[in-house]
Every structure is written in C-alpha cells, then in structure tokens.
Amino acid sequence: EKISAGLKKTRDSLMGRLEDLAAGFTKVDEDFFDELEETLIMGDVGANVTMRIMDELRDRVRHAGITEPTEVIGQLREIITGLMGEESPLDLSTKPSVVLVIGVNGVGKTTTIGKMAAYLRGEGKQVLLAAADTFRAAAAEQLAVWADRAGAELIRHEEGSDPASVVFDAIHAGKSRGADVIICDTAGRLHNKKNLMDELSKIARVISRELPDAAVEVLLVLDATTGQNAISQARSFQEAAGITGIVLTKLDGTAKGGAVIGIREELGVPVKFIGVGEGIDDLRPFVPAEFAAALFE
Ligand code: GDP
C-alpha cells in the first residue's frame, strides 16, 4: 500500500528505534522511559505532545503493573492512535461548498489542489478551481494543467489582478454551472505577512457575503519534511485565518512524519488529507487508525 510505503522512513526512524529500544531493555525503569521520550522527540513528535504521551504512558504502566518493555510499546501505540482522533472528512454539505487552500509557497499547495480535484471528481463531484494566486503567473498556469488532468473547470484572471475578484467570479460561475465544490488557490508569499493575511480575510469576506450558508473549509497545507517547523508555521496562519483542517504533504520520503501525531492536539484542528507522492492519486484522506497501523506495522 502506498501509505505504508510512503511512511517507510518515518516508520524506520520512529517505530524501528522504539522496537530496538524495547529489545535492548529487560525491565521497565526510568532509563527506559527516558530513552522512549528521547526517541519520540527525535522522531519529530514535538516536545509538548511527547510530554503528554509520556505522562499517560507512565500512568498506564503503573496502573496495569506492566513490566515488559514490549508491552509498554503496545500501550504507546494505543495512546498515539487515540491522540490522532477520528477521521475528519471535508464538509461538503452544501452545493456549492468552498475549500480555501492556504499555505506558503513550495509546500505543495497547487499539487494538492490538483490531486484533491481529481479525488472529488472520482466521487462524482463537479469541481471548479479558482486561481486566486494572481501574484505568480506560473501559479495559474500550473493550476490550469491540473484542472485539465483532473477534469475540473478553472476560473483565472490576469496576473496581478485582485484575488478576491477571482473568487467572486468563481463563486458566480460555480453557482450558474452547478459546481459541487469550488477550490480556491491562494498566494503563499510569507515575506509580507500583513499583506497576505489581509488578502486572505478579503477572500473570506467575499465567500461569506456571496455564499452565506455554504460549507467552507479552510485548509492549511504543510510540508511534512519540515517536521516541527510546520507546526510553528501553522500557528502564525492560525492567528490570521480560521483554519478548519490541515493537509500534510510529502510524507513520502521524509523521516519526520512523527509530526502528524501531535497536530490535532497542538493546533486543535484535524489533519484531513496526507500527500504521499507527486502523482494525481497521491492524496489520501487521513484515517488515523490506518496511519497508526502503517506506522506500527
Ligand atoms: P506550491 O508552491 O505550494 O503550490 O507547491 P507545488 O504544488 O508547486 O509543489 C512543490 C513541489 O512539491 C512540486 O515538485 C511537487 O511535485 C512536490 N509535491 C507536492 N506534494 C507532494 C507529495 O505529497 N510528495 C512529494 N514527494 N512531493 C510533493
């Protein structure tokens, strides 16, 4: 399976080490707990979340009187699975519904939109893409290629035009053409944060004015290869935009996938999709139990 193959590096770096650790200890003592903690931190799980996991693990071990290191790893698996919560699918309950996709350049935003369009097309939905990253001409070009591949429609304006007006047009086109989902690309330049955030709130205002009752998802795309830095990046976006979910890209080829474990806990929003490759089929709904199984297999 693609998810399992994609997670190989993370599995080796995190679970591989935990198993080696369990094999190297004969009893469950403070040294063992210290090494476990260290391994989670090295596996990009994040300091806060690691603390939470370790507290709960110690509690469980104490209460159940566990003395076998391998049994402790079993408990750890349960705790990690629980932390990631339930699957959280996109809310597409209105026609049209809107998915606003945000994130800094290079994280895989455009690719994710293309893959998501294909995924939704596969579910029989009419998809319309709005090229509201008008800052880079190449962005609209790239989106046009993906729209073609995915069988989605595209609304684009000239380079440098007002992103909110692209979204406005996309909403009206979407309504008249009977689109089920309108997915909006946005600019991701971070060097001018105030500008970017103003632009996002202007787009959000257009959406709520033109489609006051629509289901709206605001998805932040994060690059898994940046590990814990992705979490800090998410915090600065969260201050400005009401994020409803995370898409974590490039989980294939990184050993830092442990960052997924703490996202819901740290950011208070679920991971909705993961990217496990560059191809059109390489976006998967995030199913925590499936992810945990691939991680611990
Ligand atoms: P944007 O600037 O955020 O729109 O980023 P792009 O969509 O242009 O993607 C940047 C690069 O990341 C491209 O080379 C993509 O093929 C690659 N990419 C995107 N998602 C994934 C993924 O899940 N896995 C891998 N391996 N590469 C990805």
UniProtKB/TrEMBL annotation:
Keywords: Cell membrane, Cytoplasm, GTP-binding, Hydrolase, Membrane, Nucleotide-binding, Receptor. Transmembrane segments: none annotated. GTP binds at residues 103-110, 185-189, 249-252. InterPro entries: AAA+_ATPase (IPR003593), P-loop_NTPase (IPR027417), Signal_recog_particl_SRP54_hlx (IPR013822), SR_rcpt_FtsY (IPR004390), SRP/SRP_N (IPR036225), SRP54_GTPase_dom (IPR000897), SRP54_N_sf (IPR042101). Its EC number is 3.6.5.4. Pfam families: SRP54, SRP54_N. It is a peripheral membrane protein. It catalyses: GTP + H2O = GDP + phosphate + H(+). The keyword Lyase does not apply. It is found in: Cell membrane; Cytoplasm. It is an enzyme of class 3 (hydrolase). NCBIfam families: ftsY (TIGR00064). Involved in targeting and insertion of nascent membrane proteins into the cytoplasmic membrane. Acts as a receptor for the complex formed by the signal recognition particle (SRP) and the ribosome-nascent chain (RNC). Part of the signal recognition particle protein translocation system, which is composed of SRP and FtsY. This is Signal recognition particle receptor FtsY. It comes from Hydrogenoanaerobacterium saccharovorans.
